[in-house]
Structure prediction request, 177 residues.
Amino acid sequence: MKKLPITAISFLLALCGSNLASACDEACEKKAEAEHGVKFASYLNADFCSSTRADFLIQDYKSLDKYRAEQLPNGHKGGMNNIRKMLEQRKDWLQECDDYLRLTNQGRIFRDKATTDKIFAAIDKTNEELNNLVYNGNPDVIVTNGLDIAQQDFNQMMQLLDQHKTQLQLRGQLVNR
Prediction:
């Protein structure tokens, strides 16, 4: 019986806390829009961006890791192109969130500028190599020569993502769902 009031109070505090956070988001958003001459999409807020980052670091990471281990060594262009498009799309989403967070003075999508720049550069480098293999590579050459660079770039990207994910988990800022 005593648990009910405590649960209700916890719920109300959480509800009030979330309203305060969104009020800050709205105030920060309006200030940033006026200051930088931009209009943010209505779905953008800190929670959306946090969720987008978490999905990328957890769910998309699993897909990328599975692709790297099982499909990349085969050199199949269709799979490479699909992964390239997925990375391109996710980077666009993450970049949109990073711009929003940066312009509203709420931080960066990946901890700080240096980390964000490194991860985006690794995604770009991996995408560039996959793009070269898909559109310029002979299937025989891809399997014998071209995959080394792609695998190296992929490994570097995955290592950066894994390090960042681990740091967030150690700080309690990222929880596997």
